UniProtKB/TrEMBL annotation:
A GO MF term: transferase activity
Function: Part of a sulfur-relay system required for 2-thiolation of 5-methylaminomethyl-2-thiouridine (mnm(5)s(2)U) at tRNA wobble positions.
Sequence similarity: Belongs to the DsrH/TusB family.
Record GO cellular component, one term: sulfurtransferase complex
Classification via PANTHER family: PROTEIN TUSB (PTHR37526:SF1)
Cellular localization per UniProt: Cytoplasm
Protein name, per record: Protein TusB
Xref: Pfam families: DsrH
Organism, scientific name: Buchnera aphidicola (Macrosiphoniella sanborni)
Any Gene Ontology biological process: tRNA wobble position uridine thiolation
Keywords: Cytoplasm, Transferase, tRNA processing
Quaternary structure annotation from Swiss-Prot or TrEMBL: Heterohexamer, formed by a dimer of trimers. The hexameric TusBCD complex contains 2 copies each of TusB, TusC and TusD. The TusBCD complex interacts with TusE.
Lineage: Bacteria, Pseudomonadati, Pseudomonadota, Gammaproteobacteria, Enterobacterales
Domain of life: Bacteria
Amino acid sequence: MLHILMKSPFETNINFLISMLKKSDDFLALQDGVLIGLKNNIFLTKMIRSSVRLYLIKEDVYARGIHKNISTNFRLISYIHFVSLTLNNKKQMNW
């Protein structure tokens, strides 16, 4: 399953989202959701422990000027790769 976070993690029930993640899932954050990738944020340890593949939309990270503060646990991808993730994950959940 592909979990897509579009809102700031501070505006979402992120603990519930994390509890729904399975090791075989992909997690993608875009728009204000990319804040989840900031180093040392309060949700980062739980996200890493979930063992899912973690992605951020590169354009949204750079648009917010936070590219130097992103955890190395997240892979920055383009919108083209986002399309590939949706094709590879028949089930998707928007948060």
